[in-house]
Structure formats: structure tokens, C-alpha cells
Design a protein that fits this description.
By secondary structure, the protein is of the alpha+beta class. The protein has one domain. It is built from 8 helices and 6 strands, in the order αββαααααααββββ. The longest helix is centred in the N-terminal third of the chain and has 27 residues. The chain is globular and about 50 Å long. The N terminus and C terminus are likely disordered.
């Protein structure tokens, strides 16, 4: 299951990753990230300008949030979308569900709707729906279930330090984790077939996913490529 990481992606800062014959350059990653940052900063400047004319306590300052994604998220999305397209083509799948409104993606991710990142994410989320409807649900061992739990902890979407029995209870016996694991496994297989090569600074690569609980939605990353090998958890 080893991925060849001896190519240019390991040595050249100009390359973020290769998937088959497709090259994802650092310039592409930077452009998508900077587009998101510029739009986010513009939105925040507008909010601050509006707040400055509103009544408030003297000397009160609003804390300005930061863009909730990094270049790693961009690489996650680019690779996952490419691999997802390959998997869908191999399975003769066509996303038939409704398009995900950019405004809805913005409300979950905190990234402005007009950005390239949100456009790509909307496409991935629609494609993810088709893939999860086609895959066989994965067996959820305790170890694999905790992989999903750890990903949610990293995203601050669930309390850390929970025991396996408590997590299994919260995950409905583990069913909650089954489809995310299945899709991650599918993308792992496609990465192997394509001979994916990833710049080490962007490892591990994760599937962009969204979890919902208590009427709230949380984005998180489900790792499937790590180091020189594909992630295998159980």
C-alpha cells in the first residue's frame, strides 16, 4: 500500500501533488487560498465598519476572526475532488441530487460563498452524496470508530477524552462512522490506483466532511493519506 513519494512533489516547492497525469501546483493552491482570504477579509472589514457606527461601550473593540481554512484544506479539497471524480467514473455514477447552495456552504464553513473554494466544495459535497449512496458501509471496529472520533475532536466538534463505549453510544453503535469510513476507503483505493504523490508538507490528506449534531453542522477532516503509506485503521 505504499505511495511513491520520491518524485518531484517531494522535492519541488512548486508542486503540491500529483494524481495520475494531473498536477496540482503550489500556485493553484495559493490562488484558491488567497481568493478565499481576500473575500473573507473584505467581509470582515465591512462588518467592522458597520460596527464602528453602532453604539457601544467606549473603547470596546470587536475581536476579528481569522479565515477558518488553510492551504492544507485547499489541498485536501483538490485531491479529494479529483479522486472522487475518478471513483464516480469507475462506478458509472452521476450526481443526481440537488446542487448545494453556496450560501449554505458558507454558513457551515465560514468561507465566503463567492470564492472558488466554496464552488469546489459544493461540487465535492454533491459528489460525496452519490458516492456514499453507492458504497458498501464499512465495518466499524472500535479502532476505526475512534479514528472518526479523533477527527471530530481535532475539529473541536466533540468533547475530547471520551471512552470507546461512550463514543460508540454517541455514534449510534458506530453507524454514524460507517459511511465516512467507506468513502475514505474508496478514495484511498483511488489514490493507490492513480499513484498519487503528495508534497509531504500537506500530509496527512483528509476527506472534507461535515457532521451534524444538535441542529449544528461542523466541518472536519477524515485522514486517508498519511506519510508514505495510505492510512489503514483496522
Amino acid at each position: 500500500m505504499a505511495l511513491a513519494l520520491t518524485g518531484c512533489a517531494q522535492q519541488s516547492p512548486a508542486v503540491a501533488a500529483y494524481v495520475g497525469d494531473t498536477t496540482f501546483t503550489q500556485r493553484t493552491v495559493d490562488a484558491i487560498f488567497e481568493d478565499a482570504r481576500a473575500a473573507f477579509d473584505a467581509d470582515q472589514a465591512t462588518l467592522v465598519a458597520g460596527a464602528s457606527v453602532a453604539p457601544g461601550e467606549p473603547g470596546e473593540q470587536l475581536e476579528r476572526p481569522s479565515l477558518p481554512i488553510t492551504r492544507r484544506h485547499v489541498v485536501d479539497l483538490l485531491l479529494t475532488l479529483d479522486l472522487g471524480r475518478r471513483a464516480a467514473e469507475a462506478r458509472d455514477l452521476t450526481p443526481t441530487g440537488p446542487e448545494v447552495p453556496a450560501e449554505l456552504v458558507e454558513s457551515v464553513l465560514g468561507v465566503p460563498a463567492e470564492t472558488r473554494y466554496v464552488t469546489l466544495y459544493s461540487e465535492w459535497y454533491q459528489l460525496y452524496g452519490a458516492l456514499q449512496d453507492d458504497v458498501t458501509p464499512a465495518e466499524v471496529t472500535d479502532e476505526r470508530m475512534m479514528t472518526v472520533y479523533d477527527a471530530l475532536v481535532d475539529a473541536h466538534a466533540i468533547d475530547p477524552g471520551l471512552s470507546v463505549p461512550v463514543v460508540r453510544e454517541q455514534f449510534g453503535g458506530g453507524e454514524f462512522a460507517s459511511l465516512p469510513l467507506s468513502v475514505a476507503d474508496l478514495l484511498r483505493d483511488e489514490a493507490e490506483k492513480a499513484g498519487a504523490v503528495v508534497n509531504p508538507k500537506y500530509l496527512p490528506v483528509g476527506v472534507p466532511m461535515i457532521a451534524s449534531a444538535n441542529n449544528q453542522s461542523f466541518p472536519y477532516r477524515m485522514p486517508y493519506l498519511s506519510g508514505r503509506t495510505v492510512v489503514t485503521t483496522g
